[in-house]
Amino acid sequence: MNSKMTRARRAGKTRARIAAGGAVRLTVYRSNCHIYAQIISSDGDRVLASASTAEKDVRAQFANGGNAAAAAAVGKLIAEKAKSAGIERVAFDRAGYKYHGRVKALAEAAREHGLNF
Length: 117
Fold this sequence. Notes:
Layout (H helix, E strand, L loop, with lengths): L2 H19 L3 E6 L4 E6 L6 E6 L3 H6 L6 H17 L6 E3 L8 H11 L5
Parallel strand pairs: 1-4
Antiparallel strand pairs: 1-2, 2-3
Helix pairs in contact: 3-4
């Protein structure tokens, strides 16, 4: 098993638990250059809000989208977009990544700006 397969296995277990609870989920994808966050409906067929370091306004603020400061900005942005969509409570889906570094910075910034999980 390689690292991609192990991450996918961990992500599948987490997503199964979240789906059983029927919650709206905040999912994270992390690449070397960017970090992406999406709020997905409880049935999993619609993206309700999204934010990433690849967006023009976030890219203008940071030279490198692959650091914790940029991830915190995405966390703040996704929390604001969620509040405007009427979403206050989500389940955090870290997609098999460790809760550390950029993933942790995004989650803490989203919590600070009013998203509950």
